[in-house]
């Protein structure tokens, strides 16, 4: 996978070491002192951001070797990365690289669990994550979601048409007129409408919406909606959204969802990565 560009990685290093490493300098650990380290997974996880971690060590002045790429699932104890070089260089990059891998792998692992749970229904349907990532982390959040086998629902407001009830507060026209205006304004875009009840879903389906985002529907409500829309000559796709997670993904899939939309992976706990330091410059075996 691609990685964050060097200027952004350098900014991360500068954020953690803005004026040098006070402890390393005060202890007199000069650049002549050499060491090596390795990252190991403490538990099973879907890995993400090892490309960034590898480059962080290199930018700090060490050499590094990524052993596991983003997107691969590993068992407890598996080595993810090895680095060697001057002690100050390793300490300068160590915590930033570790934290980045732990955080991104947490999102990737949760995304993979959501995809697997949806598959447990016996159907293959896409899982998409929303744009509700922590502001400033969009690129790496999207990378982590994709590393887990999911996709992005929308990256931002400039990308897709999604009509919320908050938009409709200001409209004084029939749903069909709104859909027609959107198609005229953006003929290449899919018209997506968020609805909060079965009757509302039916109204926008009859108006010609391409996809209905069923906000906080229960699986039973989604199944009812799916049944009632079958008589239409052109049924919109149904996206279950709001509260979708690995525990209920199979139920939503079985109820007839065409797509699962979730922000749950963004609140997943980070994975645990063990960092082991060793004296000397011999390459980690």
From TrEMBL:
Gene3D superfamilies: Aldolase class I, Quinolinate phosphoribosyl transferase, N-terminal domain. Residues 21-105 form the Quinolinate phosphoribosyl transferase N-terminal domain. It comes from the Bacteria. Residues 107-275 form the Quinolinate phosphoribosyl transferase C-terminal domain. GO terms for molecular function: nicotinate-nucleotide diphosphorylase (carboxylating) activity. InterPro entries: Aldolase_TIM, ModD, NadC/ModD, Nicotinate_pribotase-like_C, Quinolinate_PRibosylTase_N_sf, Quinolinate_PRibosylTrfase_C, Quinolinate_PRibosylTrfase_N. GO terms for biological process: NAD+ biosynthetic process; quinolinate catabolic process. GO terms for cellular component: cytoplasm. Pfam families: QRPTase_C (PF01729), QRPTase_N (PF02749). Keywords: Glycosyltransferase, Transferase. Belongs to the NadC/ModD family. PANTHER family: NICOTINATE-NUCLEOTIDE PYROPHOSPHORYLASE [CARBOXYLATING], PYROPHOSPHORYLASE MODD-RELATED. This is Putative pyrophosphorylase ModD. It comes from Rubrivivax gelatinosus (strain NBRC 100245 / IL144). The lineage of its organism: Bacteria, Pseudomonadati, Pseudomonadota, Betaproteobacteria, Burkholderiales.
